[in-house]
Specification:
heterodimer, A: about 375 residues, alpha/beta, Rossmann fold, Rna Polymerase Sigma Factor, Chain: A, 2 domains, eight-stranded mixed β-sheet, two-stranded antiparallel sheet, 10 helices, about 20% strand, B: about 200 residues, seven-stranded mixed β-sheet, 7 helices, globular
Chain lengths: ~375, ~200
């Protein structure tokens, strides 16, 4: 599949000097967004698709970067590319690093122009609604009046959902994948454990660790380990690792890494902690927890989704226990109540929440056919 | 009684589209590739959903821009509200449903009007085949006994008794013969396919 990738890509920058007032009330007078595009915008500017990213991802959704002869592929490269379900021969695809992120868009580790120091603890707590507003401003800058589609998985699915609620005239098709309209108590609980891991790291310094030239590395590692476990199914982990021991494991009676699953988690944790910012992680998990569009309407989700302006595809995965199919069905049932144009597929996949990032024939063909 | 011509390629469609009022809400249980909803959209400007369990068929629906919900029709509409659709259609599917009582009740709970079509097991050629000692195979029931999905076949008389016993009102019925023409006499003998328009009050 990789040889059919979109190819070498380069991130672009959008510098916004029009102030934005966030849901929290905070105002950013200036911000930057880093984004990538794949494909060509047509003359009528009606073939643009926006990709919304999830918690751990970035604007690098497809194609690859090349560094030292090593290719770093985008996180949704199996979905986006020439002749892929989101076909870059046909569509102009945009993927943006969300505001508050740590991959180039303005976020906690950026320099606050008024203090000339990193924002750190002073960076606002952004929301899904804020991200959608910012994405929409970038669309205006690119002179895209209406997206052909907005697509998102997990937290990205929340953004797609929000597009249909607050900007229904600026998008035609909305694809909400492995998502939910609100986190359950268990979901919030997992996020709280992750946050506690970060904030209790002695190197956290209340979020102002940049100047001290340290990062809450260990805390971020634990947060990632916990998250990673919840994105996978018991079955998938058992299939991949079972109870296999490390070759280096000589004794079980010590605290060393004995099982392969432990080593795998260590590897994932290190990889993540080296590339991700703890303050961003805290803010994104809070954005997840706080999102609940139904609470903004007297009649809940049914009223939130009552404008009937978009065509929806909602996708869930059978083994996803983080945002289980019943989360998707709540959205589906509200849309059916309103007699909105909605299609729903539940993909039989064993991999858990992460299934939305993986290749699956039924899943991909549903997206391809829906976008046709 | 209205007369309808049997559309050979799309047998049910013309009949159903004459029954369905324009701009109504329609739910098609077991919608397959979505062609009935597509037909009704074109002819009657309806708004409709299909319920389908087979992803390969759902793919056709998505390509044709038919709204489709991936569910088993026997369990998938329990979340739908009472009388939330003008018409609920069960086209040539009744005979393969496990819980016949439940599906009829559910479709008439969710729908103000139900439209059911099924092959008539009492059709004379079916009877003849049994008399000659084999299970009936016909255009309406093209399967062999060992590979048929049809587990609850019935005759026109069986169905009407079932409706009576379960307090399902029969509003209209259309019985079609081998040549697609309406059958008015000895329908349980000459009828190959039956179409019923049903209602049930919810208490």
């Amino acid at each position: 599949m990789k040889e059919k990738s979109y190819g070498l890509v380069e991130p672009k920058n959008f510098i916004a000097n029009i102030p934005i007032q966030l849901v929290s009330g905070d105002i950013l007078n200036h911000y930057e967004l880093v984004y990538e595009t794949y494909g060509k915008l047509n003359k009528n500017k009606n073939n643009a698709i926006l990709i919304c990213h999830a918690l751990n991802a970035s604007h690098h959704a497809a194609g690859y970067y090349e560094k030292g002869g090593k290719k770093n592929y985008g996180w949704w490269d199996n979905l986006i590319g020439p002749n892929k379900p989101v076909d870059t021969n046909k569509f102009f695809v945009i993927s943006i690093n969300n505001l508050g992120g740590c991959h180039g868009s303005t976020g906690p580790k950026s320099i606050n122009p008024s203090t000339k120091k990193p924002f750190g603890s002073t960076f606002p707590f952004v929301t899904v609604e804020d991200w959608v507003e910012v994405q929409s401003r970038l669309a205006d800058h690119l002179e895209i009046d209406k997206f052909y589609a907005v697509i998102g998985g997990s937290l990205g699915g929340m953004q797609a959902l929000e597009w249909s609620i607050t900007k229904p005239n600026k998008v035609e098709n909305v694809l909400i994948i492995a998502a939910t309209s609100k986190l359950s108590a268990q979901n919030i609980a997992f996020n709280q454990v992750a946050r506690q891991a970060i904030t209790s790291d002695p190197n956290f310094h209340n979020g102002d660790y940049y100047e001290k030239k340290v990062i809450p590395y260990d805390g971020l590692r634990v947060a990632r380990m916990l998250g990673h476990i919840t994105y996978q199914s018991d079955f998938a982990m058992m299939k991949k690792f079972g109870r296999q021991l490390m070759e280096t494991s000589d004794s079980k009676f010590n605290i060393n890494i004995n099982f392969q699953i432990e080593s795998y988690l260590e590897y994932q944790a290190d990889k993540f902690a080296k590339s991700f910012d703890a303050n961003t992680y805290l803010r994104i998990t809070k954005a997840l927890d706080n999102y609940d569009p139904a609470s903004r309407f007297q009649n809940g989700l049914i009223e939130a989704l009552s404008n009937k302006k978009n065509r929806f595809l909602v996708v869930s995965f059978t083994s996803d226990w983080r945002f289980a199919p019943n989360h998707s069905l709540e959205i589906v049932n509200s849309l059916i109540h309103n007699k909105s144009d909605i299609s729903y597929v539940e993909i039989d996949a064993p991999e858990g929440h992460d299934a939305f990032l993986l290749e699956n024939e039924n899943y991909h063909s549903s997206i391809r056919s829906f976008l046709k | 009684m209205k007369k309808f011509l049997y559309n050979k390629t799309r047998p049910d469609f013309d009949v159903i589209s004459n029954l369905v009022t324009s701009k109504s809400n329609v739910l098609d249980l077991g919608c397959g590739d979505g062609s009935l909803i597509k037909h009704l959209k074109e002819k009657k400007d309806i708004f409709g959903y299909g319920i389908e369990n087979d992803l390969s068929k759902i793919d056709y629906c998505l390509k044709n821009k038919i709204s489709v919900i991936h569910k088993d029709i026997e369990t998938g509409i329990q979340d739908f509200e009472d009388k939330s659709f003008d018409f609920v259609i069960l086209s040539l599917t009744l005979q393969s449903v496990k819980n016949t009582y439940n599906i009829l009740n559910e479709m008439l709970r969710v729908g103000k009007i139900g439209i059911v079509t099924f092959p008539n097991f009492g059709f004379w050629k079916h009877r003849l085949q049994i008399m000659l000692g084999t299970m009936p195979v016909s255009v309406e029931m093209p399967y062999q006994w060992f590979n048929t999905p049809n587990i609850h076949l019935c005759t026109i008389n069986d169905f009407e008794i079932f409706c009576y016993e379960n307090e399902v009102q029969i509003e209209e019925r259309f019985i079609f013969g081998n040549n697609g023409k309406n059958i008015e006499y000895f329908s349980n003998f000459f009828g190959l396919r039956a179409l019923y328009v049903l209602k049930k009050e919810i208490f």
